[in-house]
Structure prediction request, 306 residues.
Amino acid sequence: MSDTMPSPSKWQIIAAFAAVYIIWGSTYLGIRFAIETMPPFLMAGIRFLIAGSLLFGWMLTRTDERPTLRQWRSAFIVGGLLLMGGNGGVTWAEQYVPSALAALVVAIVPLWVVLLDWLRPGGLRPGLPVFIGVLIGIGGIALLVGPDEFTPGEALEPIGIIALLAATICWASGTVYARHAQQPRSPFLTTGMQMLAGGVLLTLAGTLSGDWARLDVAAISARSWGAFIYLIFIGAIVAFTAYIWLLRVVPAPRVATYAYVNPVVAVFLGWAFAGETITGRTLVAAAVIIGSVVIINTYRYRRANG
Prediction:
């Protein structure tokens, strides 16, 4: 496959951004609907096994590049952190917390990326504006998941919050590791490998946690089946492909704006289709968290580019 790409049209870029903004924001609601009648780890594992197999198989027909054992090792590390720990943690947590809250907590991933990138050997120390953004983000999370109730009459489950925070740290760790890992030249081949690796690990986690015993195919609802298919083909394949393509054709700071939009989409969809209440506290916390991410991304990229 040639590394050269024709100049994209304005409408191709708009369509790709729409996919990343709206589809990724909608996957939180999709996960909630899927796990209503499907065990969480098995649902996520089979989702990524199917999506990864399709993407990996398609790429093998379009490139002569073949992954090495070292690249597969990287794929399992990244897939384990991003998909098993990150996405799997979010999927499991949504048994206990609303999808809107899950999206807002996940929005703090750039905060952990900054801190982990600083702590790694030879890491980049954040400047004052980025550090202020980190503190604001921590304040937003404290406001969101503090001792008061998220919705009237519905207290938050601490185990769900802990799982979400652990998931964000895993996702950030995978993001930092992936920057320096040995991977195939093709980003699409890399993504297929990571999905396959993450799918294997998630399925193993489901096996160890007893998901097979809880799986009742006959009891899976039409809504869960629809959400599951949506997560495979639209959430995983279409949105991830659009994201990877955008990283190749537009500046990274523009692509990073998905982090500001996804939580807003998730909160709206949770309210519109799942009856999740939007309180004033939720809106204020959302504004604080998204504002912190804007500060972190803006000044981090400025510093990285001199």
Remarks:
- The radius of gyration is 19 Å.
- The chain has a mean pLDDT of 89.
